[in-house]
Amino acid sequence: MSTSADQSRASVLVASNRGPVSYTLREDGSLSARRGGGGLVSGLSAIGPESDAVWVCAALSDGDREAVRRSGGDLDPADSGGQRVHMLGIDPQTHAEAYNDIANSVLWFVHHMLYETPFEPAFGPEFRARWASFQTYNRAFAEALAARAEDGAAVLVQDYHLVLVPGMLRALRPDLRIAHFSHTPWAPVDYFRLLPDDVAREVLHGMLGADRAGFLTRRWADAFVACADALVDGVGNTRIGVHGLGADADFLRERAHREDVDEWLEKLREQVGTDEEGHPRRTVVRVDRTELSKNIVRGLHAFHRLLVERPEWRGRVVHIAFAYPSRQDLASYRAYTAEVERVANLVNDEYGTSDWTPVLLRVDDDFARSLAAYRMADVALVNPIRDGMNLVAKEVPVVSDEGVALVLSREAGAFEELGEDAVVVNPYDLLATSEALHTALTMEYGERAERSKRLAEAATALPPAQWFLDQLHALTPGD
Known about the structure:
By secondary structure, the protein is of the alpha/beta class. The protein has helices spanning 39-47, 62-71, 92-111, 125-148, 165-172, 189-192, 197-207, 218-231, 249-255, 259-272, 296-309, 331-351, 367-376, 391-399, 415-418, 430-441, 445-459, 464-474, and strands at residues 10-15, 21-25, 31-35, 54-58, 84-88, 149-158, 177-181, 212-215, 239-242, 282-289, 317-324, 359-362, 379-382, 405-409, 423-425.
């Protein structure tokens, strides 16, 4: 592996837990690099090589840690599409405690309001030890950024994993222009105060070390401001911004018509089949991680109620549910994935026939298959309990072949932009969601097509590259 990466300072830096490249250690001892995608990758590409940007991220796997050992952390740009990447070899236990035990088991639960409060949380000595690991993990990022930033550089810190970084970095390098962006919702004041008082204030002060704090919707931004007003002395000099990340239309439409997607489309149409009259069965599609906030189980129950309350749909509709495993190293997520499978099997056992499987569930990830499902969806079901944005809600209308009716939770960030043309639901109300599915399935073709067109336009209003550039430009003095 080459270690020839330029180690000079940069004028633009991005920090996130996961970087744009990951490594696998082969049996012969060599390393295989795999490039990632997403909005940050698109954004860094958009600013061009002249920006001399650096991406600081954490080593997540044994392969990543071996890459750090061999390179000193400054990876070969050839492995990441020409981007400069500095990967931090944080102690695996420290990273696990910071990432799993704090970021994903505390901060994620607070912002998505997932706690079963009669039993949890209970913040004792074990939490305090793991919070110390979270501080150590954030400090490693702050020190790496401080060491690699030019005078007055722009630093864009990403997400709830790194909420302490702006404050720590400000103390080390007061000359820098720092932004933090939250990709999650932000909890309302009463729920945020589940955190120990000193920890809640530390989180807020950490983020308020930034010149600018960005959020996906005005609702989440207002919730953050309310927390700052209630627990600290307001937001001070930190500016608040809203950037509603959109779908990448050009990429999605091109990728959705490649050969592997066409092959999956034929397979899915065959699996869905036709009704007694020979017409293709209608489809209700969802694509999600088996993440607790995505509300997959209630979605399955709502589809079950559709078959109970509206027997005319029996044999005429299939619920395509692609729910790929998420965070399976956490017991609560393993249990949730098992419950998704259990409920899907119950529906199939009750109503399935020799030639009709009501729920077509797949608990694995296949992007081409997901795009094929997007293209053939009559209805897209996006019913999260709470979601920062939910890009699936934006992606399906963009690639739909004949227009799609969107059943959308009012608790998804995407509701702010898409709610007017969606069939909106309370994600906890099974009967209302069932009726919304019926409404969407019976929507006249012309209305569905017009709504889908408007949804696609709204969904692509701020594509990933522009989303990133807007945040970068907002850090420019005087803007």
